[in-house]
Design goal:
With 467 residues, the chain is an alpha+beta fold. 30% of the residues lie in helices and 28% in strands.
């Protein structure tokens, strides 16, 4: 009977710092998985890492986790896939991660075949397709199409690769695969399809395991999830003894970041889960079957980011109940005043994050505008401007003018803000915004995803020609 065991690991960058995560991964290896997959890129971080082509994770954390995961996988003959090098999947992120792996290979005298797959989309490629009159539609707003200005405004553009590049990499005999931006589920779907499984059940498995322990109870993103595929079904089980998969926890994950629990779009078509069946086979594991793959026109999601300006922030606390009550009004008046004072220097945007009032949810806070019971408020003032100098100056003036704002009935000569730092303005640097979220039709699933292949022997890396 055909079988493949897939292990999904998340929380990459901090696994080695957690004894629970390390033990759970070691427990997963005892099940002799065929593949260990990790998704390490997320849009949850916002556009800055994509715009800058940088990692949110520390080099120390990435190296520690690659060492934790790759070395035992190679010792046991387990394939290792890092789907999306942190934190944006750009060429610079892939090269940075590959450099760290190079150090580990030399230090541990490792021998393996490495596939590196890039997902960057050249601006010239998109501009040429637009020049031919092609309409590249927005994912959320189908009537809105990509323009040359959007492309030119982007510092980095990546495409979400589907399962096909993963299948090709494994077909070359790769033991380790590092990639650019990809669909999270494709990391695991590709391994299952390469093993001969039908795309519907393979994709549904990938969908459930993509976030590891999020499909179990209690939810823990630092605990691996194991999936065992046999013929037309798979079984999922968490690798921590205190956790369990239930029918409710597994089916709930169908809705994670999706509008529908029954249909999910992907590059190659649609995953139809309407007839899927879920069975509790013991107190910790769930068996899943019945999903279908419906082929469709091939298209990949484009994600782009570009420079929005330069950011400065200040941090302060407010304790006076009268100032807390009047704070949003103070801030509105001061923001208007400072924008008027600096208009000749250029444009700037002001955002006040008032933690204790509406700092987390902002305009979506249901109690916004109502009297607050907060006895103290933490204020982060954010300024994004055309230049760093303007952002710094606007932020300084905003802090100073709210700090000294007079109001009727003021009973003290002390100031309104208390800062934990003597330097009240923190220069953050470039700020980015999303520029692209569009669907690009492709005739060839591999067209945008260049692959390089290396035979690694300790510190010696030999590129395999022809890829």
């Amino acid at each position: 009977m055909r079988e493949i065991v897939v292990c999904s690991v998340v929380n990459f960058g901090s696994l080695a710092a957690s004894d629970g995560s390390v033990k759970a991964f070691q427990r997963a290896l005892e099940h002799q998985p065929s593949v260990v997959g990790v998704q390490a890129v997320s849009g949850d971080y916002g556009p800055d890492n994509l715009g800058a082509g940088s990692s949110k994770l520390s080099r120390f954390g990435v190296k520690a986790d690659l060492e934790l995961l790759v070395v035992p996988c190679l010792q046991r003959g387990v394939k290792f896939i890092l789907g999306g090098c942190p934190s944006a999947g750009t060429k610079s992120c892939v090269e940075w991660t590959t450099g760290i792996l190079r150090e580990i290979a030399a230090e541990h005298k490792l021998h393996f075949r490495l596939a590196v797959i890039y997902s960057d989309v050249p601006k010239e490629y998109l501009l040429q397709r637009l020049a031919r009159g092609e309409r590249i539609r927005d994912l959320e707003l189908p009537d809105e199409c990509l323009t040359a200005n959007m492309v030119e405004a982007s510092t980095n553009i990546v495409a979400f690769m589907g399962w096909e590049p993963f299948v090709r990499a494994l077909e070359t005999g790769a033991d380790v695969v590092l990639t650019g931006r990809c669909c999270d589920d494709a990391i695991f779907t590709g391994a299952a399809i390469r093993a001969g499984f039908e795309p519907g059940i393979a994709w549904h498995m990938g969908k459930i395991v993509e976030c590891g322990g999020m499909a179990a109870k209690p939810v823990r993103t630092d605990i691996p999830l194991l999936a065992t595929l046999r013929e037309d079904s798979f079984v999922v089980e968490p690798m921590a003894a205190e956790m369990r998969c239930t029918v409710a926890s597994v089916t709930a994950h169908n809705m994670y970041e999706r509008r529908s629990a029954f249909r999910q779009q992907g590059p190659a078509g649609t995953l139809d889960m309407a007839e899927a069946k879920y069975e509790q086979i013991n107190d910790r594991a769930v068996k899943v079957s019945g999903a279908r793959f419906v082929p469709g026109p091939y298209q990949v999601l484009l994600e782009g980011a570009g420079l929005a300006g330069y950011r400065s922030i200040s941090v302060a606390g407010v304790r006076d109940p009268e100032v807390v009550r009047r704070l949003p009004d103070f801030q509105r008046r001061v923001a208007e005043r400072v924008q008027g004072q600096l208009r000749a220097q250029g444009n700037h945007q002001v955002i006040f994050h008032n933690y204790g009032i509406d700092g987390v949810m902002g305009a979506y806070e249901p109690n916004r505008g109502k009297p607050t019971s907060a006895y103290e408020v933490g204020v982060v003032t954010e300024v994004i401007a055309e230049s760093q100098a303007l952002a710094n100056e606007a932020c300084r003036r905003l802090y100073a003018q709210v700090h000294m704002m007079m109001y009727e009935g003021r009973a003290t000569g002390e100031m309104n803000y208390a800062s934990p730092f003597s330097s009240v303005v923190v220069e953050v640097g470039p700020a980015y915004r999303y520029t692209l979220n569009h669907l690009l039709p492709l005739d060839d699933p591999h067209e945008l995803f260049r692959m390089e292949l290396f035979d690694v022997s300790g510190s010696a890396w030999k590129e395999v020609p022809g890829w």
